[in-house]
Amino acid sequence: MREDLFQKSRMQHQEPTNWERPSTNTRLWLGPVADLMGFPGIPEADYTGVYFEYECFGRLPKHHGEIVIELQGERFEQYYDRDGKTCISEVSCYLVAPEYWALQEQPYKDAVAIHGLGRTTSWVSTVFGTLMAFGLGSTAYGMYQYYSTFTIWPEEVRGDLRAGIKAKNQGDLNLSERYLRRALETAQSLPLEKLSPEPYLKISGIASALAEVLESNNRPQAAYEVYVAILSHLQGATDKTGPEKLRTVAIAYKLGEMAETYQQPAEEEERWLTFAVEEALRILRDFQSTNPGQDLQAQVNLSELELPPGFTEIDIAVPMKKLGAFYQRTGKLELALTLYISSMGVITSELGTLVPALAGCLAAESMNYVAEVLVRISPTPERREQAESWVKKALTLLLRAKSAADAGEETRGEIDQLLASTLYNLGSFREMDNDLLEARKYYVESRKTASEIKMREGVMEADVAIRRIDRLTRPHQGPP
After folding, report:
1. Domain spans, the chain
2. d(CA 433, CA 427)
3. Which residues does 366 contact at the CB level (< 8 Å), separation at least 6?
4. Which residues pair with 49 in a beta bridge?
5. Does domain 141-311 have CATH number 1.10.238?
6. pLDDT digits (tens, 9 = 90+) for 90-99
7. Is residue 63 classed as helix, strand or coil in its secondary structure?
8. Which ranges of 88-154 does DSSP label H, i.e. alpha helix?
9. Do 89 and 122 touch, CB atoms closer than 8 A?
10. Which residues lie within the region annotated Disordered (predicted)?
11. pTM
12. Do 93 and 108 contact (CB within 8 A), yes or no?
């Protein structure tokens, strides 16, 4: 995988081609300051270009919120939103003097640097990807989970599977692919009885292992095709067990994730994520209709539905949240809002199985996203007040989760990241209402939390906000 997806040049950037992963901490040349930003008063002769440095976990970011540029003691602001899309977790902006154009591979020495998403855009997205590890990216869906012993596999498959996993662990991805592909072909040729119990889980497990190797070996399109093929195979099976049904949802989710990562058409991403959500809900509702004592008509509220054996709230909520993020990114804000609220209903279910700390963390994340979407739909004072109330609820949940006895060290780290973001967002709302002293308190608390967990971007965001408040509250000094 290339280190830099986006090729930098003096006057233009090269668009990413299909099946290339955006790298993080990417520097991207966006063009002349005057043409791009339209800032009045910037001395174009001295500073003729602007770079954005950001962490990208999806498509090329189009929405940068508030850009604050400090130049020679003066302050310039600009709000702009090209397509209403956002997929960034961190932005730094550099005004670059011509003599520093050549400094492509190191920080721009003597350039004027600023940093910030600013007051109008939540940066809760900094922890979104991390929190996903609680769900589909980890053992909840078992996408890359291998059985602890090879003895459960038929003898015809066992040797190639063992050799493929060993080669993968040793870093020989080409050899691993050959063994795993042969193991998959063999497994698919065997009678299902040979692979029982749960034959579809075993076959899809080999396919997932093969796809992971292909993606790691810089062959994402081949990996994508393996996932599509095995999902089709699973869809054709009529007698799947609960874990096998869950694997169907997981692979559809993975395909949606890959469609975003490798910048495939939005329709492709929407197709797979929609399938994952609909399939998860179908499994959930089928269980209610077959479970004695459950009245499907009465159980219309997702928070009241009983989960099938082997399922957790994460298995239902995370696909919803991911599809909501897609709709938020593509400007379908009402759909995004519905999905975020639905995911909260699942996470906070009275019949839930999650430990309180994890449930609180995931629900608080959704609440921050609900707040952001509400403001983007209609940034009226009434809507801002409604959004702020969601963020306050998130803060209450996070403080409760942080003090929970069952919050392990890893969970505490995620809680603190989200807590720093939530405090910052509350500061933003107070600042928008011109309650600057209260806003500063929240920013200071956000900085303190971010500093404790060494969350660099959080510290920088809070520092920018605190300096901004200090400038605004500084007594005006008139002429002598």
Report:
1. 26-117, 141-311
2. 10
3. 317, 321, 340, 341, 343, 344, 347
4. 96
5. no
6. 333 333 333 3
7. strand
8. 128-131
9. no
10. 1-21
11. 0.69
12. no
